[in-house]
Design a protein that fits this description.
With about 70 residues, the chain is mainly alpha-helical. The chain folds into two domains: about 1-35; about 40-69, no CATH class. About 85% of the residues lie in helices and about 0% in strands. Helix 2 packs across helix 3 (about 35-45). The longest helix has 21 residues, at about 15-35. It is extended, with a radius of gyration of 17 Å. The protein starts with a helix and ends with a helix.
Length: about 70
């Protein structure tokens, strides 16, 4: 099966590139929160436990892959 262009490009990225993408995503989210008052108000009304639960759920699979490797 032929690999897609996206898969080929993803193989070229190293750990530093992935880290930079994560930091850029976090910075963009912080920008949205500060530039869009309605989004800020909405996110501040959500209980902190939901953010913690989302963090655990979204990081579980990559963490388990890392531990088992």
């Amino acid at each position: 099966m032929a690999k897609s262009k996206t898969e080929k490009c993803m193989k070229k990225l190293n750990r530093c590139d992935v880290g930079c993408l994560k930091a850029a995503t976090a910075a963009f989210v912080l920008f949205l929160i500060t530039a869009w008052p309605a989004l800020h108000d909405l996110l501040m009304k959500v209980h902190w436990g939901w953010y913690l639960a989302a963090t655990v759920i979204l990081s579980w699979k990559p963490f388990m892959k890392y531990v088992k490797a």
